[in-house]
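Q: What does the assembled structure look like for these inputs?
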Amino acid sequence: MTCPRCDSDKTHVLTESPVGKVWTVYICDQCFFSWRNTESAEITDPAKYNPKWKLTAEKIANLQVIPPVPALKK
Amino acid sequence: MPYKDLREFLTRLEAEGQLVRIKEEVMPEPHIGAAGRAASNLKNGPAVLFEKVAGYKYQVVTNVHGSWANHALMMDMPKDTPVKDQFHELNRRWDAFPVGVKRLPTGPCKEVKVTENINLFDVLPLYRINKYDGGFFISKASVVSRDPEFPDDFSKQNVGTYRIQVKGKDLIGIQALPFHDIAIQLRKAEEKGEPLPVAIALGNDPMITFMASTPVMYGQSEYEFAGALRNGEPVELVKAETSNLEVPAGAEVILEGVILPGVRTCEGPFGEFPGSYSGARLQCEIKIHTITHRHNPIFENLYLGMPWTEIDYLMALNTSVPLYKQLKASFPEVKAINAMYTHGIGCIISTKVRFGGFGKAVAMRLLSTPHGMPYAKVIIVVDEFVDPFNLEQVMWALTTRVKPDKDVSLIENCPGMPLDPSSFPAGMHTKMIIDATTPVAPEPNPRETALLENPEGTAEWEEKLRQLVAGFGK
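A:
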């Protein structure tokens, strides 16, 4: 399964529906995007995910850090 | 009587026609988010309880605080109470702070305990709130944490609402902006390389949720304020299972875990209260190791989108009242503050003007309050006879009292609210003060005018006309 948002192949099943086999939720190990297989193709299909919200490994590495990690006090 | 827990409040809302039940099964997306948006589009929109969500065990309720009627009922006032009256009643109850808490050995939130094979989806019917949210968010949690430097100081125990993204069966992300109280505590823990214990209370007495989103001073207890706003009735707390944190006894669900020191991973975007998405950021992670919950817990969550939505009702008067208190302490002339616009990014202050320039100076004081410093950006100051909750009156003041070349002031390079998309760089902003008060000496007022007064008998006629209108159709 490819992440619809960052196109990474490192994804896994986060959970199956607790009641019945109704849906499956997946999550991306790189960008933490999660999606349910019953959502629209605009959310679940990498080719149809809005390019405005796409991420890459490079973009992720350069995201703002909130809050900044303080230096360890000795 | 104040409400013991969320369930008592839902019962009251239903009795007052302010809660609707959706009995047919719904899909998590897009139905729950859409219904939350729709409920806040209605005048005096109801809370919406979903009894069956496909694939999940439990119920979801949204829009619990999402109308002035629900807000009034939260305060145990008639549901048609005007906003200004709700403001003044909150203001009155505020003075009862602190009301000590009641500590219980155990409570309903402990009916079920889970410590193994934790899966948040087993307990919470999670769903995507807005289309381009980066995942499933918990938008209405009360996050409890303590100051690592003062672990036994109850008043420094923080109860705050922060956005939470589910990132695993037992892993969540949390947004702790540097000016949030929890960020002070996190910093102290991270400087020692230690995890910060947290307990996250979901589905609470509505006044606890209300206080968790109220900007009070760091050393003031949200629980002791909630007791004051519950008309002096203490909140009931129990100890968390794994720490000295104290949580509401009647909560639907308690998630216990730790913020992992030094860890920041991709979080967001999330549709935020300014009505736009905040971008993805590298933010903190919480590992959940214990869950306790009531039998058949109800998951309470809120929709937030282009204002007004539930969050705007939740953060309206609880932003206005503390700012009012802080200004009033310095300037007794201040009559009221309406800080209901986007969590106080827009504020209207009503004040008597003691001398020339007074209105502008009062606005400066607002900008030096802890909340006003980053949030308040557009500040309008009006005379004491203008009701700041009546926007027609405020517009009157703007159109007839403002001389733009002298009454509009811009203050550059100030703190800003990072989620405000016009803040650049995020966290910096220019402040604007519009002094719409009538000039008072020594400021010249070369065209002094006499205000029009109501014709004699207006009040009697108003009542008579109201009764005639009310009689139509009967």
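Chain A touches chain B at residues 5, 14-15, 17-20, 22-23, 25, 27, 30-34, 36, 38-40, 42-43, 50, 53, 55, 59-60, 63-73 (CB under 8 Å).
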